[in-house]
Amino acid sequence: MYTRRGDKGETSLYGPGRVHKDSLRVEAYGTVDELNSYIGVVVSSCKVSPIRNQLKRIQALLLVAGADLATDSRGKTTGVPRITRENVKLLEQMTDQLLAKLPTLTRFVLPGGSALSARLHFARAVCRRAERRVVALARSEEINGDLIPFFNRLSTYLFDLARYANSVDGRKEEIWEP
Q1: Which of the residues 45, 111, 113, 146 has the least number of beta carbons within 10 Å of its own beta carbon?
Q2: Quick check: is 10 in a domain?
Q3: What residue ranges in the chain does DSSP mark as E strands?
């Protein structure tokens, strides 16, 4: 179905209001959608059930983050899911569980190793771009204050999950030699 409402380069937000499709807000939640889609690619090729299940949980949180970003904070929109401090803490707990299984990292590692690890590193890079878009939006408009820490923690989690994927696959991390 098509509505033609976006044919002039505008899109609707949750609640009242429309914005240009190249606005910082649309750029932010569009990049979150890109990240979620790419994680879907990772999930579709992941044969490690615990990793796949955690990534599906992340995808659900990314839908919440996208809805949060697509809501004009000036409006009186109710019922829209929001990223919370508890979501940030969940990512910290998930990261801590991974770190307990990994050797301490003292040097930079090159992204790659197993195919799963390489895909997770790519997802981390897209997450960092989403974080930059959210920061840019926050500099010009009011947003949920938990969003920036959420994306910061998520990129850390994806980095450590990539390391863990190499560990599960028996791959040694390649240390960067300057």
Answers
A1: 45
A2: no
A3: 10-12, 18-20
Residue 128 within any structural domain of the chain: yes
> How far does CA 24 lie from the centroid of its chain?
17
Cβ atoms of 116 and 169 closer than 8 Å: yes
Its domain, for residue 134, covers 19-168
- 92 domain residue, yes or no: yes
Residue 173 near residue 109, CB atoms below 8 Å: yes
Q: What is the pTM of this model?
A: 0.91
Positive or negative, the Cα torsion across 18, 33, 73, 27?
A: negative
In a domain, 176, yes or no: no
Q: Tell me: the pLDDT tens digits for 122-166?
A: 999 999 999 999 999 999 999 999 999 999 999 999 999 999 999
The one-letter amino acid at 78: T
- Residue that is written with structure tokens 């409006």 in the block: 75
11, β-bridge pairs: 19
How many domains would you assign to the chain? 1
Q: Which two tokens stand for residue 54?
A: 């955690």
Residues 87-128 pLDDT 10s: 999 999 999 999 999 988 888 988 999 999 999 999 999 999
